[in-house]
Amino acid sequence: MNYWVNTKHYLVGWMIQIPLQSPSRLGTLLEYMDALLKFGEEEQVWSLLRDAHNCGEVFEAGKGYPYSEFIARTLEKHGVVPLPSMSDYGMYNPDAYRCTSLICFYNRERKLIQEKIEDTGALLQKLRPDPNETDVEFYILPTPPIYIFGDIWDDKAIIRIELHTDIWFPWVKGFLDDPSEFPTHYDPQRKMFDNRILANCHTVRLNRFLEKVRELTLNHEGIWHGVDGAAGIRDYVSQLGDVGIRLD
Which residue, among 165, 18, 30, 194, has the nearest Cα to 92 in the 3D structure? Predict the structure, then answer.
């Protein structure tokens, strides 16, 4: 069953700092971004398809040049360093930002499906075709499976990796479901629903990606800040390990 939801505020996030104190460090950032995208595509957890910036420049995958070249071109033309951006005050805007992740879910016939998904909110609306307005407003929001975005602040690049859906977690709150209707999938001690089948299907790859990014960050003299939970849901933060999500 699909007990997972999406939220406007991120459930957990990881923050990265890459120092840019000298012009030579820009080359380091270009290398870093190429490696970041490469790792995301290798693990099939983050493939950036489109990224539109306020300066008017647009990156689109498949145009024949890497993201680092897009950064260099935009810097030369506009004097700004573009990084993947979260537009519209944190609300997902597919016209500005599109990415895809290979994730697992149950279709309406309860068959396990693995598919590349851009918007887990749109997916959840298909799987739950008759939600009420409150469900849509709080838990079936448009959002990509993983958000990666950044900006330049003073002499450093700040990059964030955020999860706005709990589909990655082995145990979920099940905000849209009544435990009495699904007692075999509900743990009364945890007060959470069992999502381990889905998590074991795709979160292994997410964890590998995070570990690669952490190592990449340290190799580029950056700072890996670990995790935080903005939504204040301790049940999710407690499922985190040193780098990724614990699946044991």
Answer: 165
Contact present, 42 and 31 (Cβ < 8 Å): no
Whether residue 146 contacts residue 203, with contact meaning beta carbons closer than 8 Å, is answered with no
Supply the mean pLDDT for the chain. Answer: 88
Cα(157)–Cα(136) distance, integer angstroms: 34
Per the model's pLDDT, the better-predicted residue between 100 and 20 turns out to be 100
Are 98 and 79 within 8 A, CB to CB? no
Output the DSSP codes for 113-178. EEEEES-HHHHHHHHSSS--HHHHHHHS----SSEEEEEEETTEEEEEEEE-BGGGSSEE--TTS-
User: What residue segments make up the domains of the chain, in order of their start?
Assistant: 12-237
DSSP 240: B
Q: Look-up: residue for tokens 């009495």? A: 180
Kindly give, in sequence order, each residue whose CB lies less than 8 Å from that of residue 92, ignoring residues fewer than 6 positions away.
119, 121, 141, 142, 143, 144
The pLDDT assigned to 14 comes to 92
Helices (H), the chain: 24-42, 67-78, 120-127, 133-139, 196-219, 234-237
Q: Which residues of 179-205 are buried (b: 16+ CB within 10 A; e: fewer)?
A: eeeeeebbeeeeebbbbeebbebbbeb
The model carries a pTM of 0.92
Rounded to whole angstroms, how far apart are CA atoms 137 and 30?
38
For the stretch 124-157, pLDDT in tens is 999 987 777 777 778 888 899 999 998 888 889 9
89 pLDDT tier (thresholds 50, 70, 90): very low
